[in-house]
Design goal:
Blueprint (H helix, E strand, L loop, with lengths): L1 H36 L2 H40 L19
């Protein structure tokens, strides 16, 4: 019970202190962030990073695809579902078994 009361009091104090800063402080932070984002140096870096990611995307795609295939092969070998039917757990879709 004491912990709950301490938590509620802490929350109330935090709320009061936070609201004292108010909208003015929020607007200062927002305008600082906006001016930073619009800085030409930041935009150049963003552009370079975007180009780098676009250039490397095919390599990453191939590596991820290989890793997924290896992982799925490992799971199949451990679960005995390696019948290569293309359906999970060796079942056939569309059959109810009844």
């Amino acid at each position: 019970m004491r912990t709950k009361a301490a938590f509620l009091i802490g929350g109330a104090v935090g709320y009061v202190l936070g609201t004292r800063a108010g909208r003015e402080q929020f607007e200062k932070i927002r305008s600082s962030a906006k001016s930073l984002w619009e800085d030409p140096r930041v935009q150049d870096t963003v552009s370079e990073a975007t180009d780098f990611v676009k250039d490397r995307a095919p390599e990453v795609k191939d590596k991820v695809g290989g890793a997924v295939k290896s992982a799925s092969d490992a799971v199949r070998s451990k679960t005995g579902g390696g019948d290569d039917s293309g359906t999970p757990y060796g079942t056939t879709s569309g059959t109810s078994g009844t």
